[in-house]
Design brief:
Length: 325
């Protein structure tokens, strides 16, 4: 079983980062940013989006054996065979380092040793909806750190300088390492973005995502309304198979990457791509200090957010904004 969502051919996980995180991601700032709790009031995920998740779960279950439908209520747990437990231990060691293989969590994160493996790394629909709710209002949200000061272009106001920050119908969205396409379809259906794109390196996953899209558009799925089919239709919703590190600038307003298991070389290449990209918001699972060491410039960390995987593990997502448009 593959244990990572791939953006490039490189597969080995980067070394675990141990540097403490400050509120702004810059030296000299005080405390670690608080993390949005996962045990909050249940979120409402619309019926069509939930049905899309269920459809993908049924189609891909044999690939890695987990579903997402517990996401609002809490994780389902199941007994694991000895083989499954050994496979998970090996995957955790390869992906996250020796400490995690021994059941230890990275700072600020929890590992449910009784839950099944997280597979290649899918977040639950509830976590994604909570994240999107934040991104819809990020320009006015109560963030861990204030938005950096932007100098507006001549003739534009300060408000204009942050235009396009909130996720919505005028936004463009890309998921780097999009797997079976759940987050891409979620952005298209829930946020109704102008364009939703997913790029996945692993051909089998990309193929299944394309098959799902074709099935959603076929008219054979009663949960897909005319509006829903329009929202997930090309060219508005596009799923690609390829290497994100060679794709060129990622010129989308919102970039989402479940990059926790990307290796250091992949992250270095992505940092170069991001420096050439015109984005507004970046959601990453890597610490800000690591991105700075890899050469990523002109961005600020403004919020930390706890996300939950379908394997019952909690990971921090870091919401960053481009400092200057």
């Amino acid at each position: 079983m593959c244990t990572e969502t791939c953006a490039s051919p490189a597969r080995a996980h980067a070394s675990k980062e141990t540097t403490g995180e400050t509120n702004s991601g810059t030296p000299g700032r005080a405390s670690i940013a608080p993390v949005t709790p996962t045990k909050s009031a249940p979120v409402r995920v619309d019926a069509t989006t939930r049905s899309v998740y269920r459809h993908i779960d049924k189609k891909t279950y044999l690939d890695w054996g987990l579903t997402s439908d517990w996401s609002v209520e809490g994780p389902r747990k199941r007994r694991r065979t000895t083989t499954e437990a050994e496979t998970e231990a090996e995957a955790n060691e390869n992906a996250n380092g020796e400490a995690k293989a021994n059941g230890e969590a990275r700072d600020g994160e929890s590992v449910d040793v009784n839950a099944a493996s997280e597979g290649y790394g899918e977040m639950t629909e509830g976590s994604i909806e909570r994240l999107f709710n934040l991104l819809r209002e990020v320009s006015t949200a109560d963030l861990d750190s204030p938005l950096p000061v932007r100098t507006p272009e001549k003739g534009r106001s300060n408000a204009d300088a942050w235009a396009g920050l909130d996720l919505g119908p005028d936004s463009t969205f890309i998921d780097v390492g999009s797997g079976y396409g759940k987050v891409v379809f979620h952005a298209a259906l829930s946020a109704k973005v102008a364009k939703a794109v997913g790029i996945e390196y692993v051909p089998s996953r990309a193929q299944k995502a394309s098959e799902v899209q074709a099935e959603l558009l076929s008219g054979a799925r009663p949960f897909m309304t005319d509006e829903a089919r329009e929202l997930v239709s090309p060219p508005r919703c596009v799923l690609e198979q390829g290497d994100a590190t060679t794709r060129g600038p990622l010129n989308y307003t919102h970039i989402y990457m479940y990059d926790r298991v990307f290796n250091k070389k992949t992250l270095e290449l992505l940092a170069r791509q991001l420096n050439r990209s015109k984005f507004q918001v970046l959601v990453t699972y890597q610490r800000v200090e690591l991105w700075r060491r890899l050469g990523l410039r002109n961005f600020e960390h403004v919020h930390s957010f706890t996300m939950r995987t379908t394997g019952g593990q909690n990971f921090k997502a870091y919401v960053c904004v481009r400092a200057n448009a």
